[in-house]
Design goal:
By secondary structure, the protein is an all-beta fold. It is built from no helices and nine strands. The chain has strands at 2-7, 18-28, 33-39, 42-49, 51-56, 59-64, 68-71, 75-81, 87-96. Strand 5 and strand 6 (59-64) form a beta hairpin. It is globular and about 45 Å long. The N and C termini lie far apart (32 Å).
Length: 98
């Protein structure tokens, strides 16, 4: 997996309603898989190419090229790559009182 990652925690200003914490561009291989329980942050993923399978709080779906997925704070979620094709995506992690 190729990853371009940036962390913005040093710029986190608590008085703002939303703060970007991290962002990354990833090229996910066939072994890519993430599982989190009661994840304490929000996330958004934009699928540039390929597919990712998601389960967010029991709701299962496939995100395709051009889709944006919102992952709510404190959610239980799993997502993984389609084994047929690598997934190219952008993701953003943020927090706040939104």
């Amino acid at each position: 997996m190729l990853k371009r990652y940036e962390n913005f925690n040093k710029y986190n200003l608590e008085y703002l309603p939303i703060s970007l914490l991290e962002k990354s561009e990833e090229y996910c291989d066939n072994n890519y898989s993430i599982k989190r329980e009661k994840c304490p942050i929000y996330a958004m993923e934009y699928i540039i190419k390929g597919e990712n399978f998601f389960n967010i709080n029991g709701y299962e779906f496939t995100a395709h090229e051009g889709d944006i997925v919102f992952i709510p704070k404190n959610s239980n979620h799993t997502y993984y790559n389609n084994k047929k094709e690598k997934c190219h995506k952008l993701w953003f992690v943020f927090d706040g009182s939104i």
